[in-house]
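Record type: monomer structure entry
Structure origin: computed from sequence
Chain ID: A
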Amino acid sequence: MSSVESKLYQFAVQTAKEAVALDNEGKYRQAINQYQRAAEILTQFVKYNKNPQMRMLCQKNIEEYVDRAKLLKSQLGGPRARRSGHSNASGGVDESSSNINGVSSEEQELIDMISGTIVTESPNVNWEDIAGLENVKQALREAIVLPIAKPELFTGARKPWSGILLFGPPGCGKTLLARAAATECQATFFSASSADLLSKWLGESEKLISSLFKVARLKAPSLIFMDEIDSVATKRGEGSESGGERRVKTQLLSEIQGLKTTHGKPLLVLGATNRPWDIDNAMLSRFEKRVHVPLPDMEARTGIFKIHTEGVDSDLSGEDFIELAVRSEGYSGRDIANVCREVIMLPIRELDMSGLLENSDQEVNVRDITLDDFKTTLKKVKPMTNKALMKQYNEWAKEFGE
């Protein structure tokens, strides 16, 4: 068995185990998807494997997975099941799981389809957790928070944006801003990356994207956050583009273009990218508002240093934090967070290297962090964004930004 065949077989076994676990937990719709996927993987494996005994064993497993998926489908999709509830593991009917919260069996199937791929969460991030970026926060309030919190203000020609794009250097808080906006307006937050939406199975990526938008409409008001959107929305017609990638882009374009939002149940799409110039023009036009998230200014850098040293003993004064902000010009929020983490670990590292942490019963005193610690660390930890890249962001913002 070659390494490729071995990996394919191991993937099939793992998928089958997940299907059985879901089946035992009563998550039958998810189990159906996993049973079918395991059967598909084994079918591919059989095509390449020449061992007759292995082929016979795999064929038997394929039939078992397909039969189990069919049985679960018949129990869930039959007329009796639709009227009375979902089937339980013993073949009976669990009436308590039928039509939960007014969700039909078809809608529940969509929710189950993306539950293992798309993370739906209630973020607990507030505007106060993000230092600076006041202009960006205000732009997001107008585009996302106010239309959901005060829908009565947006009537007639005053309509909210349905697509917003955040662009700027990496580590400047684009994801945090999206989470804070969702928290502020109490919307259902869907976080989807390119890894979540892309699948090697033909047609599955388009199905996942379609299901994501359908579930978002069901749970509206909703905010769909698509991080690193440039990875799934690059310019079409390039030489390296495959047919599958083209279909994914087309499906995503049609979903955003046909976005159905009502006055009481708004649905917004928020994209984030570090490379806005790589995004296809048709996709770019879907994002009606494009907001530049720049590197933090001096006041913001001061706040970021305070946030990431909170709860740690230090002898830093207000003037020291201002000096750190001056010294860290050109650093992103993530760069500053990395500097703070390195500094906070210095006292622990000194104790460990001196051997004082080897005895677990011995009480140790951790010294305060100092301004000199930060000065030393800033010389070693350099910013990730250079001036040439910042110039590129500013030029793109002037041409395509808000």
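Annotation 1: The beta strands are 86-87, 93-94, 119-121, 163-167, 188-192, 222-226, 267-273, 289-292.
Annotation 2: Residues 3-107 form a domain with the Methane Monooxygenase Hydroxylase; Chain G, domain 1 fold (CATH 1.20.58.80).
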